[in-house]
Design a protein that fits this description.
This protein is an alpha/beta fold and 238 residues long. It contains 8 helices and 9 strands. The strands form 2 sheets. Strands 3-2-1-4-5-9-6 form a 7-stranded mixed β-sheet. It has a two-stranded antiparallel sheet with strand order 7-8. The protein is globular and about 50 Å long.
């Protein structure tokens, strides 16, 4: 039987039309520009890459355009995998709350997973699996909504919930920068946070009224973008 997250994302993705993605920096927001820069700095040509939670395949499209490959995708949503299958050598359906990914250890040079962590009620298996399938020294790049963003703090003063809580009922856990650091520290890993931007509009967190961030203010960003260089073993400390 499908759970609520699987049902919602199957329906959401089925309703989204196909589209041509562009990665022109002039048309990207600060977070996407940061993702592009971090991935391109890796030198993607010929590198095996995995997207966990690929949605409609936007970042798989980017990876393919950079000459990365083979590409793979993993998701709880069968609809997401159907949409992404033409870009991938392999797709895997898995509930990462409890299931292993059907890939061998150290299979990927680069693993990305954007806005997925917040949907997982018990994240230990998810983190362990991302670390397991990413080779030591490879790139693991993730993002998660920031429950302590600047706009979230303003909304609380005004009596409104942070967007990370109020805008999506499938957000099952909520993270600040320190929570992300503590989670990965249990696996012996230290994430590096990349500054992006934060909104200034408490009524519309996706407004273009925003300021670019820096390392000193990254804890206030709307979304926490962070990278790791996995060191094995990646198992949670008891």
């Amino acid at each position: 039987m499908k759970n609520a997250v699987e049902t919602q994302f199957d329906a959401l993705l089925a309703a989204k039309p196909s589209q041509a993605y562009t990665f022109d920096p002039r048309r990207l927001g600060p977070k996407d520009r940061a993702i592009v820069a971090l991935l391109r700095a890796e030198g993607l040509k010929g590198k095996a890459c995995l997207d966990v939670g690929p949605g409609t395949g936007r970042w798989l499209t980017f990876l393919a355009g950079e000459g990365a490959g083979p590409l793979a995708a993993a998701d709880i949503s069968a609809e997401a995998l159907r949409r992404c299958a033409p870009l991938c050598a392999k797709t895997v359906k898995a509930d990462l709350t409890r299931e292993r990914l059907d890939f061998p250890d150290d299979a990927f040079d680069v693993t990305v997973s954007f806005e997925v962590l917040e949907h997982i009620p018990y994240p230990d298996n998810y983190v362990a699996e991302l670390l397991r399938v990413t080779r030591p020294g490879g790139l693991l790049l993730l993002s998660v909504p920031n429950v302590a963003s600047l706009i979230s703090r303003i909304r609380l003063v005004l009596g409104a919930l942070p967007p990370a809580i109020s805008h999506d009922p499938t957000h099952l856990r909520h993270y600040r920068q320190r929570d992300v650091a503590a989670l990965f520290a249990r696996f012996g890993q230290r994430p590096t946070f990349a500054p992006t931007s934060f909104s200034l509009n408490p009524l519309d967190p996706k407004s273009r009224l925003r300021l670019p961030s820096c390392r000193l203010t990254a804890s206030l960003d709307d979304s926490l973008l962070f990278s790791l260089r996995p060191e094995k073993p990646g198992r949670a400390a008891p």
